[in-house]
Amino acid sequence: MTIVVGNLATPEGRAALDAAVTEAEQRRATLVVVAGPGEPGQDTAGLTERLAAAGVAVRLDPGTGDLADDLVRTALETGADLVVIGLRRRGPVGKLILGAGAQRILIEAPCPVLAVKV
User: Fold this and answer.
1) Which family is it part of (predicted)?
2) Where are the alpha helices (DSSP H) in the chain?
């Protein structure tokens, strides 16, 4: 079993990673963490140590700069069972639009997508 999540230094990114770690622990799954845009080297050593301490098998993948495409591609390549994304609350106008990246992931992912609200 494989779970795919992005590694973003945002509240949504941290919430998604936390939820993905919990899911990986519960499902005894491998967690594939994709670097977010502009974050190719973002504390990968600390992240690897944290996940290893949680007892989660982890693989780190570099991103290409388009996180939505990277998550969908990685989910396809790994035969993922779940993709985890973070969503932030939006104002009245923002509620009409989910967000282009999140919408693409929800529509194009080859597996279920867990959306975590922040």
Assistant:
1) Belongs to the universal stress protein A family.
2) 11-27, 44-53, 67-78, 100-108
> pTM for the complete prediction?
0.86
First to last CA, the chain: 26
What is the total count of domains within the chain? Answer: 1
Gap between the Cα atoms of 18 and 86, Å rounded? 10
CATH number, domain containing residue 15: 3.40.50.620
Q: Report the alpha-carbon distance of residue 104 to residue 27 in Å, rounded.
A: 26
30 lies in which domain range? 2-117
pLDDT digits 0-9 by tens, 105-117: 999 999 999 999 9
Distances in whole angstroms, Cα of residue 42 to Cα of each of 7, 69, 96: 8, 19, 32
